[in-house]
Specification:
- With about 260 residues, this protein is an alpha/beta fold.
- The chain contains ten helices and seven strands.
Length: about 260
């Protein structure tokens, strides 16, 4: 099983606990010249967290999702929208229709698509002047992640997950570069425009463990290590009042296809 396929193992948990996206993100996408009724190809829709607000804007959406369970939950969440079709397929293998799209959109999944395919196929899917809009989610410093707390949680990861880089620390949003190098190299897009949103979400101990079980790295750990890590993290969060606040950076990258 590929690491990106682990999300499909527990689609209901993913749908329940994974955070959504800031409302302003869809506003900024619309302001980039994506009017109501635009044809949107969404790559890796998951269970539809970003698809629903796009559908509410009146976009005509084809959403391609690798995981069959994830796609099933997405269809349930989007059942009220007759302008959305969810397809179960890998984007790399899915045959593009003859009519190009106005937008290729991908929320927190573009990095999972084969790097040899994702930019060129996105460009192929778009009309001239169409928009590639990708969303990245970064876990940044802030909230409960003081230096002291992060040091404690880092010790637990280094103990139970041998792939953890030693001394890893979260950075602030200002230290994360705006990266459109692969788009520039392709020669098929104008320089990207970036929109950034910092926000926080609070989790109880049980909710935080639920969230961790939606991350591919945690799911891929052997059972004894995963159980040990989650038990140690639960004890740490309980010791800090049974509540953890995560700070996120959501980044919308918008680039227009050129000739």
């Amino acid at each position: 099983m590929e690491l990106r396929e682990t999300f499909d193992e527990d689609a209901e948990r993913y749908d329940r606990i994974r955070p959504g996206y800031p409302a302003r993100m869809v506003d900024d996408l619309a302001a980039a010249g994506v009017p109501r009724g635009a044809r949107v190809l969404e790559v890796g829709c998951g269970t539809g967290q970003a698809t629903v607000p796009l559908a509410e804007r009146g976009y005509d959406i084809v959403a391609v999702e690798l995981g069959a369970r994830m796609a099933a939950v997405a269809r349930r969440n989007l059942a009220g929208f007759d302008t959305v079709r969810v397809v179960t397929a890998a984007f790399e293998d899915w045959p593009l229709p003859a009519e190009p799209f106005d937008v290729v959109f991908c929320a927190t999944a573009f990095h999972w698509v084969d790097p040899a395919v994702r930019v060129t196929k996105s460009a192929d899917a778009l009309r001239l002047g169409g928009v590639l809009a990708t969303v990245a989610t970064h876990h940044i410093a802030g909230g409960s992640w003081t230096e002291a707390f992060h040091g404690e949680i880092q010790q637990r990861y280094e103990r139970f997950d041998p792939a953890t880089p030693p001394g890893l620390r979260r950075v602030f949003a200002r230290d994360i570069p705006r990266d459109d190098a692969e788009l520039t190299r392709s020669g098929r897009f104008e320089p990207a425009v970036f929109h950034r949103y910092e926000w926080e979400a609070a989790y109880s101990t049980a909710e935080y463990l639920d969230l961790l079980l939606t991350y591919s790295g945690h799911r891929a750990l052997p059972e004894p290590r995963r159980t040990g890590l989650l038990t140690a993290i639960a004890q740490l969060v309980d010791d800090h009042g049974g509540r953890v606040v995560k700070r996120y950076l959501t980044e919308l990258r918008v680039a227009r296809r050129t000739g």
